[in-house]
Amino acid sequence: MDRLLIEGGNKLNGKVNISGFKNAALPIISASLLAADKCTIENIPSIRDVYILMDIMKGMGAEVKYNNGTMDIDTSKINTHKAPYELAKKLRASYYLMGGTIGRFKTCEITYPGGCDIGTRPIDQHIKGFEALGCSVEIQHGVIKCVASELLGTNIYLDVVSVGATINIMLASVLAKGRTVIENAAKEPHIVDTANFLNAMGADVRGAGTDVIKINGVEKLHGCTYSVIPDQIEAGTYMIATAATGGDVIINNVIPKHLESITAKLKEMGVEVVEYDDSIKVAVKSPLKNINIKTLPYPGFPTDLQQPITALLSMVSGTSIVTESIFEGRFKYVDELKRMGAKIKVEGRTSIIDGVNRLSGAKVSATDLRAGASFVIAGLMADGVTEVEDVYHIDRGYERIEQKFIGLGAKIKRISE
Ligand code: UD1
């Protein structure tokens, strides 16, 4: 398994290009199933999760070509509603194949989703939505089976704001009869991006980006060409890493509006952040101030950046308090940061961070995707060498992470075994 060796102490400087958004690309690739036609999807990040989903789609009969960020996918020959068990198990986002196959075939059979170990991660709201549309749902031996004789539009109120459930219900309802209304819907940029892709295929989805989404069922969808939005979490990670090293970096190919919560928090810390049309500059000109953060659904501070920003705060003088309101298990990585010298106390869903003057390089294991990003940032700040193990977690969601950081002046080496 690959490891990263990071020699800390170098300020990041220069320019970095942000890739397409993982969390939009995965539902969009899954949604292409609904057209039974050819789609060309641009700005797809070259990351492990995309390759796993591509293999799943091929396993189901799709023809897929992926080159230089562009995926040509022909789903016309898919004739199964079953996703290959072993592959689907590896990928949390394989749950989008439920919405995709239900929409297309009115039936699905898929393993209970895997993914990062950051909490219990139920899918009851997805199932509630499928049932409301007319599916009967059974879970047996770790496999979810849904069958409907007819999909009928209806009103669905989500009990919790869920990104996955909102998208999955959109996918399952675009070809249903009549109108589906999702209330208390999530508003993340990838929900809007998926809705835009569905509309480009001929669907009638309105209100994505607000908490009420209305879907008027259509008879048929068709192929299209579409480009995925930039990855706000990758961009946020480079913004935080720049602040952490006292650097000065221009982050290109971003939508600054999607980064407002991160920009606001970095500015509160005293970091200079300048927004341009599709890039953002982050520079440190004075010592940073401690802050408090609570993760929230969009447009609040994203839970996916909780771990990276905690690494930064671990070296900011004073006490910072971080409250995790989305995933209760998202503090497991803190023990690894403590091994590097961080002073962090976790109480329930809150971590209390007492900033230290120095972190020291240590061997740490990337327990999940964003924990891995947090250790890379900690390694960039630390004295000596940090060895990050289990890099495959990081490769699930960050394209060429070490090369992008090396381009900014970091000293990182990948050891492949
Ligand atoms: C997605 C993202 C993940 C991000 C998260 C929150 C993908 C592939 N993953 O995950 O990176 O951290 O959004 O922005 O896009 N919940 C329920 N029942 C459900 C569904 C969710 O109780 O049926 C709860 C979850 O336990 C969690 C909260 O709702 O506490 C939000 O989860 P959700 O938005 O669904 O996250 P994911 O779609 O799993």
Defining key terms:
four-stranded mixed β-sheet, alpha+beta, about 425 residues, UDP-n-acetylglucosamine1-carboxyvinyl-transferase, Chain, 14 helices, 2 domains, 23 strands, binds uridine-diphosphate-N-acetylglucosamine
Describe this structure in words.
The protein has 417 residues and is an alpha+beta fold. It has two domains: 3-19 and 230-292 and 302-415, Enolpyruvate transferase domain (UDP-n-acetylglucosamine1-carboxyvinyl-transferase, Chain), CATH 3.65.10; 22-227, UDP-n-acetylglucosamine1-carboxyvinyl-transferase, Chain. Helix content is 31%, strand content 25%. The chain contains 14 helices and 23 strands. The protein has helices at 22-31, 48-59, 85-89, 96-105, 124-132, 163-173, 189-200, 232-244, 260-268, 306-313, 334-339, 369-381, 392-395, 401-407, and strands spanning 3-7, 13-17, 38-42, 63-67, 70-74, 107-111, 136-140, 143-147, 155-157, 179-183, 204-206, 212-216, 225-227, 248-252, 272-275, 279-283, 292-294, 319-323, 343-347, 350-354, 363-365, 385-389, 411-415. The protein has a four-stranded mixed sheet with strand order 21-22-1-23. Strands 2-14-16-15 form a four-stranded mixed sheet. Strand 15 and strand 16 form a beta hairpin. The longest helix is centred in the middle third of the chain and has 13 residues, at 232-244. The chain binds uridine-diphosphate-N-acetylglucosamine. Uridine-diphosphate-N-acetylglucosamine binds at residues 23, 26, 92-93, 119, 121-126, 160, 162-165, 186, 303-304, 326-327.
